[in-house]
Amino acid sequence: MTTDETKAPTQDEANEYLDDLRESGVTNMFGAGVYLRDVFDVTRQQASKLLAEWMRTYGERHPQ
Asked: Under a CB-based contact definition with an 8 Å cutoff, are residues 21 and 40 in contact?
């Protein structure tokens, strides 16, 4: 859970982090929620929402 000093990331911040994580190949992106929770100190629900939106918009943000 976020604290008063820690603010949840914007979707853009999460997208940038997730793009970098994907490029690194460290994890299958279906497991990326754990990384979001650790890095941004968000709840499981917040991480799931951020990850789902990243997945939904990936194609439009990265056209081939």
From this structure: no
